[in-house]
């Protein structure tokens, strides 16, 4: 028998409410000593907190592919860890594995069939990158741009990224530059984030939406208008960007985090004015879901890995320690406490 710690859902946020750390509770648990056929004992190294989890906190997630977390049950999401022992032929002791349904637990017994074995060489030993730049948020940035962005070298395009200092946004802006946009402008929530975007990640300019006049600064930073918009946030910021888009532009509808604490469907309805702009300027805005493109994941992860190894893409992370920090880290990320990918380190 083995003592472990786990995080369970303690309560649900109110309708239209922001999540609070007290929605989560830390508990002790014991793991059975013996593995059954097909099972694997894993030690958790890193866990991910992600905006979509806000939907899993509701009794009804509003999306058929997302199941709600149950009260008093262990919470789960993206994780990476190492195999301690295995009764599954696909895994052996020492393998590094990931899953989208990793329990928020220090050690766990999982079915081998839900684990993906990964190659630590892809991340030069930075195993937390499997949850971010060389994982789902990196894939979202790359495949979102490739599938929906119509970025073309030599076409003199300007890209705007909202949520630009976050996990997806910080990678998306760098890929926009590498794929040939002549100008990449980020919108984010602090001066420190703006500085990182321009000085560390090579964005052309950055706008702090909490402090600055966004329409005026966008005009200044995008004198030729906006051709491609990587949208992580929705709401007023997106109305403002779309109003400055050029004919034939493309919105990459990645996410709408400004609306996730509200009881609205996904994607949330647009104002009449914004809908008119899209129609009259022939701007595309198709829903993008990275999970629909996983057949392209392996090639995309190789491309991301090469860019990171060569230094052409810089990876930013905000790392906190310990399973007891999960609730705090999730709530902090939802209000902008992170630069780059929010990671929780569970063990060495
Ligand atoms: N389509 C897909 O398949 C897919 C896959 C993964 C993620 N996503 C989406 O991508 C987006 C980013 O996810 P991520 O994992 O990379 O998270 P993230 O950007 O690292 O973290 C969330 C960020 O959202 C910003 N934010 C919070 N409330 C806001 C508001 N009211 N207005 C503007 N910005 C706000 C905060 O930064 P500030 O300081 O700038 O406010 C915060 O840091 C989310 O919308 C997510 O749902 C989509």
Automatic annotation (TrEMBL):
Q: How does it assemble?
A: Monomer.
Q: Quote the catalytic activity from the record.
A: 13,14-dihydro-15-oxo-PGF2alpha + NADP(+) = 15-oxoprostaglandin F2alpha + NADPH + H(+); 13,14-dihydro-15-oxo-prostaglandin E2 + NAD(+) = 15-oxoprostaglandin E2 + NADH + H(+); 13,14-dihydro-15-oxo-prostaglandin E2 + NADP(+) = 15-oxoprostaglandin E2 + NADPH + H(+); 13,14-dihydro-15-oxo-prostaglandin E1 + NADP(+) = 15-oxoprostaglandin E1 + NADPH + H(+)
According to its UniProt entry, the function of this protein is described as: Functions as 15-oxo-prostaglandin 13-reductase and acts on 15-keto-PGE1, 15-keto-PGE2, 15-keto-PGE1-alpha and 15-keto-PGE2-alpha with highest activity towards 15-keto-PGE2. Overexpression represses transcriptional activity of PPARG and inhibits adipocyte differentiation.
Per UniProt, the keywords (alphabetical) are: Cytoplasm, Lipid metabolism, NADP, Oxidoreductase
One GO BP: prostaglandin metabolic process
Family to which the UniProt record says this protein belongs? Belongs to the NADP-dependent oxidoreductase L4BD family.
Q: What is its main location?
A: cytoplasm
One Pfam entry name = ADH_zinc_N
GO MF annotations for this entry? 15-oxoprostaglandin 13-reductase [NAD(P)+] activity
Species source reads: Dicentrarchus labrax
Offer a single GO CC term for the protein.
cytoplasm
User: What is the official name of this protein in its record?
Assistant: Prostaglandin reductase 2
Recorded hits in Gene3D superfamilies, A to Z, give: Medium-chain alcohol dehydrogenases, catalytic domain, NAD(P)-binding Rossmann-like Domain
């Amino acid at each position: 028998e083995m003592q472990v710690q786990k995080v369970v859902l303690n309560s649900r946020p109110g309708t239209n409410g922001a999540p609070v750390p007290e929605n989560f509770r830390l508990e002790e648990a014991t793991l059975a000593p013996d593995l059954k056929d097909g099972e694997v004992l894993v030690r958790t190294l890193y866990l991910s907190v992600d905006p979509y989890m806000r939907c899993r906190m509701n009794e009804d997630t509003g999306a058929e592919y997302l199941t709600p977390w149950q009260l008093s049950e262990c919470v789960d999401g993206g994780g990476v860890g190492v195999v301690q022992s295995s009764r599954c032929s696909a895994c052996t002791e020492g393998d590094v594995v990931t899953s989208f349904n990793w329990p928020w637990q220090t050690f766990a017994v999982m079915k081998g069939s839900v684990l993906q074995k990964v190659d630590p060489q892809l991340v030069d030993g930075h195993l937390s990158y499997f949850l971010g730049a060389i994982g789902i948020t990196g894939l979202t940035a790359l495949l979102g741009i490739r599938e929906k962005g119509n970025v073309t070298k030599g076409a003199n395009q300007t890209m705007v990224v909202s949520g630009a200092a976050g996990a997806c946004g910080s990678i998306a802006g760098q890929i926009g530059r590498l794929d040939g946009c002549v100008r990449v402008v980020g919108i984010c929530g602090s001066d420190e984030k703006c500085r990182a975007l321009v000085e560390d990640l090579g964005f052309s300019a950055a706008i702090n939406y909490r402090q600055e006049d966004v329409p005026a600064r966008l005009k200044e930073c995008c004198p030729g208008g906006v051709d491609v918009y990587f949208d992580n946030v929705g709401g007023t910021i997106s109305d403002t960007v779309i109003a400055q888009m050029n004919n034939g532009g493309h919105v990459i509808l990645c996410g709408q985090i400004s609306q996730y604490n509200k009881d609205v469907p996904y994607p949330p309805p647009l104002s009449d004015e914004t809908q008119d702009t899209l129609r009259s300027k022939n701007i595309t805005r198709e829903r993008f879901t990275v999970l629909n493109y996983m057949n392209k994941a392996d090639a995309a992860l190789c491309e991301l890995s090469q860019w990171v190894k060569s230094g052409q893409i810089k990876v930013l992370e905000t790392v906190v320690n310990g399973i007891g920090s999960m609730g705090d880290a999730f709530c902090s990320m939802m209000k902008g406490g992170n630069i780059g990918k929010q990671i929780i380190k569970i063990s060495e």
